[in-house]
Amino acid sequence: MRRRFIGCGLMSGTSRDGVDVAVTEITGRFPANKIKILHAETQAYPASVRALLLRATRGLTAEDVATLDFLLGGLYGQAVLKALRRAHLKPGDIDAIGSHGQTLLHRPRGVMVAGRRVASTLQVGSGAVIAQTTGILTVSDFRSADIAVGGEGAPLVPVYDYVVLRSRTASRIALNIGGIANLTALPRRARIGDISSFDTGPGNSLIDSAVGMVTRGKQRCDRNGTMALSGKPDMREVRTILKHPYFRRQPPKSTGWSEFGEEFASRAVTRMKRRGLSRDAIVSTVTCAVGRSIAEAIRSYVLPRLAPDEIVVTGGGCHNPVLMAILKEAFPRACVDPGEAFGISSDGKEACAFAYLAYLNLKGIPANVISQNSGLRPAVLGVTALTY
Ligand SMILES: Nc1ncnc2c1ncn2[C@@H]1O[C@H](COP(=O)(O)OP(=O)(O)O)[C@@H](O)[C@H]1O
Ligand SMILES: [Mg+2]
Hints:
The chain has 14 helices and 13 strands. The strands form 3 sheets. It has a 6-stranded mixed β-sheet with strand order 3-2-1-4-7-13, sandwiched between helices. Strands 10-9-8-11-12 form a 5-stranded mixed β-sheet, with helices on both faces. The chain has a two-stranded antiparallel sheet with strand order 5-6. The protein is of the alpha/beta class. Adenosine-5'-diphosphate binds at residues 11, 13-15, 17, 178-179, 204, 207-208, 221-225, 315-317, 319-320, 350.
């Protein structure tokens, strides 16, 4: 491997909006790596693919799953080739692709089958297809090894947060508000074992679903929080949403579409419609619930151990001024700002982290232990597809 590693990270999150691509340069030695984005872009899924993915929650057959796996693998491969052309790079310039894949199922706590508790997770977007489409070595399926050693399988970014965002002078929370929101707590002068990480619950997924429902599919998201700003949140409904048992569970914990996807949103929206709330009030209410669920998670599970000086917000949610205002108000003594204020890309961060996870895989460096901070066996995350 060259001293300068160029990875291409792919992130396709719970929002099912598309795939983020980040061509990333990694130098130095773990954990003192320097990680720099050379080129980042988001490629929206074609409408037909998005529609397929939104339906893909329940009752999928093996045929559906296999088809989606190969369909998305091909799309991700094409997305890489397109991004490389725009970045004036060739596949030969890239050492590896790291791809998260699209989650179809995430059940870290498991279910009882054949007398055993079986935890599982499933991301589609075949690494073999990506590798063959691009001619680039591809690492995918990062969650399985962590689940296999008894971990949550998510979040996967804490190792990246540790390398890029730990600070000698400030205690930080790295908060990513994607479809699901997750955070990594990084105490000042943290060592790798000092950090902790968990999913706080829904992020944009709940807002996007509510917007889709109240606009009958005409709008997909509340751009710049316009609807939430025009309405007033219904506090009774906010409290009902926050009664979901997930919020009371101690970390480490992770969640996904099955807990906070369309079904959950649809129940909340139906309740609010029945009570005669306006479109804007409904969107304002779910936005308030999302913001408060994040603030509450920080209060309950982070503040007892760490008072954050800085909250580094990334993911699509950092563009929502209502979410940002709720967080700023909840933590007046912390500096709450988008990633850019701390030198990282808010939209490219997670894709960049997957380029880094591919690098760690190829170096044989375990990436799970610090994601859980729970004495789990170290595991190298990801499965490699070679091209020859
Ligand atoms: N300008 C904006 N205003 C409000 N919300 C935004 C804006 N830009 C992005 N978002 C939200 O961010 C979501 C995408 O977030 P992203 O970080 O890509 O999540 P994921 O990793 O789950 O795909 C969009 O669906 C939308 O809800
Ligand atoms: Mg996205």
